[in-house]
Specification:
One of its GO terms (molecular function) is ATP binding. By secondary structure, the chain is α+β, with helices and mostly antiparallel strands. The protein contains 8 helices and 21 strands. The two termini are about 40 Å apart. The structure holds adenosine-5'-triphosphate.
């Protein structure tokens, strides 16, 4: 792997420390997302990689080339890094073709511009100016311009933030496909978990200036490193448990652990995603009785908030998704069973207000 490698990175704005001992590896050809709440330092990290902000210490290498260490600060224009900013930042007075070809050697310009416009599916628009393009087309041209000089690494700073929801979803899939076709190594920053899950081979979850976990989306979703990561990736029911050999003893009975045997005999919480809860009007051997306190339609299903009976010693609410045609009425008592395997987490809590989603049972 060459790709991007960042070690022991510290950075500040004035006297305020923003990045602390940050580590990140992105293999060559991988699409990575840095996911974190507003203000955690995502843009500062991108600006350091791009060469626009000097870190206090640490190393940054791209494609095996050291761009930052104690003695080195390669200037931005010599880094061979492409950037796609939030607003595209196209040159308004230049045509689409001139934007994409900007800075390319004259000899290869025409051919490379045609190739890039083809890649983003906009080869009919070469003579237009940016104000004659839709928001989505402008972002595709910004992508074509960033890829044209064959950068070693592409950085995308919330590139879909200004677009409406439907276009956002369409474009992020399209951009991911385009980048894979181009074999690019890319880092996208976002605070939108759906964007990260849809776009990335790797998600690096950032909190307080550090990467707290970096893994494939599926692994992060099902095996988060802590309760904060669990909530960052989606709604999470965090249920008190006692860990035994290969299972957890919970209010929902014995549930198998995702990774098999655990050698701890500790108090823990286990992660139950909302889709692991099944609702019934009749009780079973290990069901939790709970009252519907709220329901919301989500198109393909309903999201329910449920208040468990106090005898189960679960803090409220539990969150469940149900595909029924109509939601159970508010106030109705249901019986909830848990399915599938569970992942244990240390009960030390990252405060829910520091992550976008939160449901703690
Ligand atoms: N030029 C600057 N001078 C002083 N402080 C700054 C500067 N730029 C950013 N900061 C501060 O550094 C911290 C990290 O900012 P940064 O923009 O990197 O976060 P972010 O995760 O990208 O946030 P957002 O998602 O809102 O864009 C914030 O507390 C911010 O106020």
């Amino acid at each position: 792997m060459s790709g991007l490698s960042i070690s022991a990175l510290h950075a500040a704005h004035g006297h305020t420390t923003v990045l602390r001992d940050l580590e990140l590896r992105v293999p060559n050809g991988a699409l990575a997302c840095v996911l974190g709440p507003s203000g955690c330092g995502k843009s500062t990290l991108l600006r350091i990689i791009a060469g626009f902000h000097r870190p206090a210490s640490g190393t940054v290498t791209v494609g095996g080339r050291t761009l930052n260490d104690d003695h080195t600060q390669v200037p931005a224009e010599r880094r061979r890094i492409g950037c796609v900013p939030q607003d595209g930042a196209l040159f308004p007075h230049l045509s689409v073709a001139a934007n994409v070809g900007f800075g390319l050697p004259r000899a290869e310009r025409r051919e490379r511009v045609a190739e890039m416009l083809d890649l983003v599916g906009l080869n009919g628009l070469a003579d237009r100016h940016p104000h004659q393009l839709s928001g989505g087309q402008q972002q595709r041209i910004a992508l074509a311009r960033a890829l044209a000089p064959r950068p070693e690494l592409l950085l995308l700073d919330e590139p879909f933030a200004a677009l409406d929801a439907a276009l956002r979803a369409e474009l992020r899939t399209e951009v991911a496909t385009t980048l894979r076709r181009a074999g690019a190594t890319a880092v996208l920053v976002t605070h939108d978990v759906d964007e990260a899950l849809a776009f990335a081979d790797l998600i690096a979850v950032m909190r307080d200036g550090r990467i707290v976990q970096c893994d494939a989306p599926h692994a992060l979703y099902h095996r988060p490193a802590d309760t904060g990561v669990a909530r960052t990736l989606g709604e999470a029911n965090l249920v008190p448990a006692k860990l035994a050999a290969d299972h957890a003893i919970t209010a929902f009975g014995e549930l198998p652990l995702t990774d098999g045997a655990s050698d701890t005999d500790e108090d823990a919480v286990v992660l139950l995603r909302p889709h692991q809860l099944r609702l019934s009007t009749t009780s079973g051997p290990h069901t939790v009785e709970a009252r519907v306190v709220n329901s919301g339609f989500r198109g393909h299903d309903y999201r329910l908030e449920l208040a468990p009976d106090p005898r189960h010693e679960l803090a409220t609410p539990l969150i469940a998704y149900t595909p029924a045609d109509a939601p159970p009425p508010t106030g109705e008592t249901l019986h909830i069973a848990a399915h599938g395997t569970v992942h244990p987490l240390a009960p030390d809590q990252v405060p829910p207000d520091q992550v976008p989603n939160s449901a703690t049972a």
